[in-house]
């Protein structure tokens, strides 16, 4: 288990906006509708109310300041190895004990390579936020996947779609390797992608159609820290506030990506009619 003591760096973010906009605190108060008294309290490291966060970060985002994305670039330059986690309600500590089992690779702490990846999984939740972590893979057992059949079988197994093939030697080998790993590194699969995978498992499409459809996602890779030992290789960096306009922009992008996957699936069905089906692969 590791402790997560990150808070929003609102004081530093306000200073950045003031400097960038070349405005004083009174002007900033007028533009954000946040009282001068509240801004003075923040400058003394007093934690503000939730509505104050929203006013300040919405103002920044609507004025083209992509603070969170820029911070991503800066911390990657500083630390090199950085990952991001989207949390629905916030984090105080991380442990594998009690983690959900029906995720892509079973129990574990899931992180992505970029801020936008993490944001995409929690942008629908009002109280959600994103965290950044430094990491190392030293002295850990790593299982890596690409966007291939093995990856698809693994996700379908852990999401409960392969019960009819649970004793198959191909499935057993993949699951055993995952369960022996401290960290799994694999392409990210969201619910829209799992919908395509489920069609493959149900025998509606062949493997080639599924994989060519899934290759349209381009969500990057996820890092799943599956053991308490692996958690010790994570160090929290910062917590990021997600304003309402940023959430809305993220939802629009996800909607556009959903249409892209649907189009790729329709085209793949036309191009790859001769591929193998699930019962032929796991016979």
Keywords:
283 residues, alpha+beta, 434 Repressor (Amino-terminal Domain), 2 domains, 4-stranded mixed beta sheet, 3-stranded antiparallel beta sheet, 9 strands
How is this structure best summarized?
The protein has 283 residues and is an alpha+beta fold. It has two domains: 1-65, 434 Repressor (Amino-terminal Domain), CATH 1.10.260; 66-281, no CATH class. It has 13 helices and nine strands.
Account of the protein in words:
- There is one protein chain.
- The protein has 283 residues and is α+β, with helices and mostly antiparallel strands.
- It folds into 2 domains: 1-65, 434 Repressor (Amino-terminal Domain) (Orthogonal Bundle); 66-281, no CATH class.
- The protein is 49% helix and 14% strand.
- It has 13 helices and 9 strands.
- The chain has a 4-stranded mixed β-sheet. Strands 2-5-9 form a 3-stranded antiparallel β-sheet. A two-stranded antiparallel sheet has the order 1-3.
- The longest helix is centred in the last third of the chain and has 28 residues, at 244-271.
- The mean pLDDT is 88.
């Amino acid at each position: 288990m590791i402790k997560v003591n990150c808070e929003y760096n609102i004081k530093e973010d306000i200073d950045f906006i003031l400097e960038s906009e070349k405005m004083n605190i009174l002007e900033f108060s007028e533009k954000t509708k946040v009282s001068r008294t509240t801004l003075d309290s923040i400058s003394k490291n007093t934690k503000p109310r939730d509505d104050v966060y929203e006013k300040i970060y919405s103002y920044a985002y609507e004025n083209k300041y992509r603070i969170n994305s820029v911070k991503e670039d800066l911390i990657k330059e500083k630390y090199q190895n950085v990952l991001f986690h989207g949390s629905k309600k916030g984090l105080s500590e991380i442990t594998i004990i009690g983690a959900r089992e029906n995720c892509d690779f079973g129990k574990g702490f899931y992180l992505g390579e970029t801020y936008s990846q993490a944001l995409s999984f929690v942008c629908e939740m009002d109280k959600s936020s994103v965290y950044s972590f430094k990491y190392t893979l030293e002295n850990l057992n790593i299982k890596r996947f690409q966007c291939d059949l093995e990856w698809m079988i693994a996700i379908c197994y852990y999401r409960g779609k392969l019960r009819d093939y649970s004793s198959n030697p191909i499935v057993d080998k993949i699951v055993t390797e995952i369960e022996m790993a401290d960290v799994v590194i694999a392409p990210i699969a969201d619910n829209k992608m799992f919908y395509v995978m489920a069609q493959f498992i149900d025998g509606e499409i062949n493997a080639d159609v599924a994989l060519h459809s899934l290759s349209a996602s381009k969500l990057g890779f996820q890092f799943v820290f599956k053991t308490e030992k692996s958690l010790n290789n994570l160090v929290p960096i910062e917590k990021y506030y997600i304003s309402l306009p940023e959430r809305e922009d993220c939802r629009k992008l996800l909607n556009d990506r959903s249409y892209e996957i649907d189009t790729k699936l329709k085209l793949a069905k036309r191009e790859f009619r001769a591929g193998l089906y699930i019962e032929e692969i796991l016979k």
